[in-house]
Amino acid sequence: MPLLTVRHRTTYAYREKVMLAPHRLMLRPREGRELKLLTHDLSTAPNAEIIWSTDVLGNAVATASFERLSNCLTIESVAEVEVTAPSWPIYNITTGSAGYPFRYSAEEWTDLGALTAPAHVDRAGRLHAWAQSFVAGPSTDTLSLLQDLNAGVFSGISYQSREDEGTQAPLETLDRTWGSCRDLAVLFIEAARCLGFGARLVSGYMWNGERSVGSTDRGSTHAWAEVYLPGAGWVPFDPTNCKMGGQNLIPVATGRNIGQIMPVMGSFVGASDAFFSMQVDVEVTSGSALGGRNLEPTSSICSARTGEPFVGLRS
Q1: Topology of the domain covering 95-260
Q2: Quick one: 155 exposed, middle or buried, by C-beta within 10 A (0-12, 13-18, 19+)?
Q3: What is the pLDDT of residue 295?
Q4: Residue 61 and which of 83, 94, 148, 253 are 20 to 30 A apart at CA?
Q5: For the chain, domain boundaries
Q6: Helix or strand or coil: residue 209?
Q7: Would you tell me which CATH number, out of the four given (3.30.1130.10, 3.90.1150.10, 3.30.300.20, 2.60.40.2250), belongs to the domain 3-83+262-302?
């Protein structure tokens, strides 16, 4: 049962003092059967009143409200988690859903709702045709189909870190043949929805202590996908690394689209050119945070005005 510590610090700098509007923070790891949250501390400088709530998807959301002007803002989250996801997961999919195509029950279909509906325009049906190309025949194994789709995104799209906001449209990612972790996750999810699956995005962190995905970093913010399969529940797929299952993944939030799960969202009131820089430092380490070691910078300064990008790991 690996004990991991996640340190995540976001620093905004301004050329002059500004009034900070309330910031929406999604930084608390999401507990589940494969992840136990042991401790979590969230702090800001300048100090803020922090109010916690739960959104419609069950994510923990902190709203930070500030009272005074400042020329900088630091948001720091430190969490200790215990991760128990197996290296080779076995999913007990119901007999009626083990083969594709299958039908969700009426209740499942109602509850999944918008998570089954493609969110991007595909007038010529190009994305639908691309997704259908992974279907082996009139009756194919459901899990094998999704693994083939996952591998198809991994092999067909080159990973490229991208620090600007937002995501590429799925067809744009297919045409460019490159994208960030969030772009690859969006492409996978949209293709899965074209095939009739309920799918959602996940934001969080990746633990790479054994360099198992070929990155020089031990940890990073990350984005991946989950598909709902009757009997198995929500099954993680990470097309950035061609992985299935929750090993090395620390989920924070789930959503229908990437805008719902950004780690930090906020704004300020001030001159139009007041914004100077944003720096994101993330470290995932083995063991407890009780040693009090300082966080060392692991990422470069970027120039996003609001929101925080995802930086993925890929071999």
Answers
A1: C8orf32 fold (3.10.620)
A2: exposed
A3: 45
A4: 83
A5: 3-83+262-302, 95-260
A6: coil
A7: 2.60.40.2250
